[in-house]
Design brief:
This protein has 161 residues and is mainly α. It has helices at 4-19, 62-80, 89-92, 106-115, 129-146, 155-159; strands spanning 116-117, 120-121.
Amino acid sequence: MMPRPAIALGFAAALVLLAGCDDMTKQKKQNPYASRATAPGEVPAGTVAYGEISAPVPPVTMALLERGQTEYHVFCAPCHAETGDGHGMIVQRGFPAPPPLAAERPRFVYDVITNGRGVMYGFAQRIAPEDRWAVVAYAHALQRSQHMMVTDLTPEQRIAP
């Protein structure tokens, strides 16, 4: 059994601790879902309006396509294959085949890279927005190359490696 002075001391310590506590439900805090004081139609600073894309679409340059090719080979080719037909090495080892890139629209491809679709997880945390657009540009070039004939090329393009 505990002696009476120890019980009294413990009770006094508990009273001191409880007296110093505030009511936690009445603390000042910021509600993340509270509406912000902005004019109708105005977007708060640092946010993106619904339906807008945070990274503007860059102009297609050779450097952008080369960057897209590099990122595509790292992140996309294991499933979508080098040609974008959906028969990459992961698929050859039993993973479900993704749809071929030939039928997809560029903005849709950007959204799928960002958010994922089906069994594909989103790459928003792994690929920067500018690099996602580079992958989209490269995927679009890949789509167009699937339906190109040598006769469609200019003589200079036929010589280029």
